[in-house]
Amino acid sequence: MLFFMHSTFSLELIALVAGVALLIFIKSQNKMKKAWGIFVAWVVIILSVLSLFCSIFHVVRFWYDGGPEMYRHMMKQNMMERRYDNMQNKEKNNMNSMMQNQKHSSYKAY
Questions:
Q1: Which helix H or strand E contains 37, and what residues bound it?
Q2: Fewer C-beta within 10 Å: the chain N or C terminus?
């Protein structure tokens, strides 16, 4: 989970820097038709800032809810449940094989 948060945050910062760089590059040009480039640069900047705020909100909420400890506890509980289920399945399989062995072995009357 933390890996996704870090990679998302990094990509958002890259998009923000790219938008600012595009805006600076277009404003330094002396051509008349630069309105489309300025529009695209501002859209990239605005969307990346909004995305940064969303990511920061979710990271704060994640840490407020318990952070990685919450997921470690859930994973540990799931592992314990899987072990218990595996033990029960093994016992059932052993019982079924014992029952089948008893059905196949019949006492012969002499």
A1: helix 35-64
A2: C
